[in-house]
């Protein structure tokens, strides 16, 4: 059976980490693409030279020509610029929109059958624009943010409850920004909802509020600590989970920036919602019931994404 081919568009901090994990997991052969050809080739060679030690046979290559991604089963897009301390994700829009145009056209020409996972920020607007530029079916283009935001939420909850991260499920909906909506009511420890754990005296509402706030600012916390660039280990792990769900038809239920066609009251929008990912790409949007307070928070978050999409349309009239 032929190996899967994974194209990583952007070979910076997240791209390099993705390549390392994909090779170690033997998820497929890996092509690192970057306008900085040396970085792509250097990282591919470095990981290939590590492969005899970790004992896996994925092939790795680096390139600055889109022809190299031909026939990719999965494309993971991190091309663009990350934020620096003091910047918001939205400050990246102008520069990264131009990058999405080049990437979308490259994927459309060379890997039109791929499942495309966008990570470039500001995420929800960039995945919407990437889909427009590529013309790929909406179910084959998705954004990674919810898995990461939920992983941060799960980590903080597991820490607070002193339980294994494996037993904490939690998810975050909405846009990937400070208005994201971590849902305590849908978060559990081994199936026990967080509100029940509070009633059992495991923690307090005030502590949960702190965790929700820390989750919302999770990306900024890392940016401030690193001083240069943004998070890359957790974002890469999160995108690999989504790629694996597609390649192995696992039907995982994961929060992702997916295209909405009326669900949650939104149309032609990419925003974070729970979806089923399998061999068909985004196979289903899971339309959970939100209470009035959750819906109001979700609407605020969606409004901020709408503002960014409008800014994309203003900058590039071909998107209008
Ligand atoms: P970085 O290490 O700077 O890598 C970006 C790479 O993109 C660099 O190697 C560039 O040379 C390359 N690049 C720039 N323009 C192009 C182009 N036109 N074609 C191909 N390659 C190009 O950044 P990073 O890997 O740390 O982050 C990548 C993106 O992910 C940024 O926009 C971050 O803001 C974003 N990010 C998103 C999340 C989410 O949860 C959504 C989390 C963390 C980072």
Characterization of the model:
The protein has 320 residues and is an alpha/beta fold. It folds into two domains: 5-144, NAD(P)-binding Rossmann-like Domain (Rossmann fold, 3-Layer(aba) Sandwich), CATH 3.40.50.720; 146-314, L-2-Hydroxyisocaproate Dehydrogenase, Chain A, domain 2 (Alpha-Beta Complex). The protein contains ten helices and twelve strands. It has helices at residues 13-24, 37-54, 93-110, 123-134, 146-161, 194-199, 205-216, 218-226, 233-247, 292-315, and strands at residues 5-9, 29-33, 60-63, 74-77, 115-118, 141-143, 168-173, 181-189, 192-193, 252-261, 267-278, 281-285. The protein has a six-stranded parallel β-sheet. A three-stranded antiparallel β-sheet has the order 7-8-9. The chain has a three-stranded antiparallel β-sheet with strand order 10-11-12. Helix 1 (13-24) links the parallel strand 1 and strand 2 (29-33). Helix 1 runs parallel beside helix 2, helix 1 (13-24) packs across helix 9 and helix 4 crosses helix 10 (292-315). Bound molecules: 3-acetylpyridine adenine dinucleotide. 3-acetylpyridine adenine dinucleotide binds next to helix 1 and helix 3. Substrate binds at residues 83, 89, 121, 152.
Helix share of residues? 40-55%
Mean pLDDT: 96
Query: Number of domains in the coordinates?
Result: 2
Strand content: 15-25%
Assign the CATH class of the largest domain: Alpha Beta
Poorly predicted spans:
none
Query: Given the C-alpha coordinates, what overall shape results?
Result: globular
Protein name: Malate dehydrogenase
Pfam family, one: Ldh_1_C
Domain Lactate/malate dehydrogenase N-terminal: 5-143
Domain Lactate/malate dehydrogenase C-terminal: 148-306
